[in-house]
Structure formats: structure tokens, C-alpha cells
Amino acid sequence: MTGNDEMIILGCVGRAKGLDGSFRLVLYNPDSTQLDHTEELLVQGPAGQQETLHLIGQQRIGEKGVRIVQVREITSRTEAEQRKGWSLVVAKSALPPVSEGEFYYHEMPGFLVETEAGDLIGTIKQVIGTNIEIFVIDRSGGGELLIPVIEDMVCVIDRAQRRVVVVNDIEERFEDVL
Known about the structure:
By secondary structure, the chain is mainly beta. The longest helix is centred in the middle third of the chain and has 6 residues, at 77-82. It has two domains: 7-94, RimM (Elongation Factor Tu (Ef-tu), domain 3, Beta Barrel); 105-173, Roll (SH3 type barrels), CATH 2.30.30. The protein has helices at 77-82, 170-173; strands spanning 7-16, 23-27, 40-44, 50-60, 66-71, 87-91, 112-115, 120-129, 133-139, 144-148, 154-158, 163-166. The termini are far apart. 6% of the residues lie in helices and 43% in strands. Strands 1-2-5-4-3-6 form a six-stranded antiparallel barrel. It has a six-stranded mixed β-sheet with strand order 10-9-8-7-12-11, with no helix packed on it.
């Protein structure tokens, strides 16, 4: 990691759990395995201050994407509560490479969205993670279009060209909600 490395937010510190300094950690991508084999967490406060925390233990709980963690540096409920709302971050350079057809949420805003015929639909504004990913598109003609990232609708995600190709009739499929 370099001093100028961009930090990517993976989640946030939630409320304290118990009296020993344990706290909830909410991952924005509930399917992420980023924390499965780590011993350290990097958290960032609202003023940009960063703190490295060393994991003692972590436990997945029933709520998807939420873990209860205990770290060496936080030993009381009060200390845990002081970090509520802090971001869990990772250096962009530390992220593992993605496989063909996969993407990181943070890299998608700004991608052009066009049909198979080459007609411009708009630009990706954000990605919403639910049971499936959803692209929020700023339509070139105005308004927004929500496109689920499924094979029947998204044909190509071209990371090198920063573009997404969707089926030709994408807007007709959603005309009742536009």
C-alpha cells in the first residue's frame, strides 16, 4: 500500500455488543469473504483518522453481512461505542483481482451503458447490492433506470472500456415503471 493509495469502504462499525469491547461490523457486500482470512482491520473515523485493529475473534451472526468482532485495542463497551459509524476500509491495491464478468461496486459508477445495437442508455450512477446487484443508471434522456445484473439483461461488462452492454429492449422491459 502506498501513501497515496485510494481507500475503499467495505462496511462500517455498528453498535457495541456486550461489555468486553466487542462490536457489530456491517459489511456492505454481505457475500464478501474479505475478512475470512485477515488478522487486522483498518477503520477510518469521520475526520479521516485511521486505526489498525488486531482481531481476537469474529463471528458471523444470523443477519447476513453482519459479524460480531473483538479486537485487542478495544476492551470496553465505551471504547466500542466511540467508533460506531466509523468505516471499515481497505487500500484499493490490496483488493484481490476479480474474475471475468465480476466487478467491484466502487469501480462501476461512470461506466457507459449501451444496448447491443450501440444505442446509449446512460451512465451508471451506483450499484445497489441486494440478493442480486442492481445498476442505477442516469438515463441520457433524463431520469433513472434500475437494471438488475442478470444474464437475461446484461450481456457484457467491459471493465477495460468502462462500459456495460445490455439487451436491445431493456427500456421496453421497464416501460411500466418509467
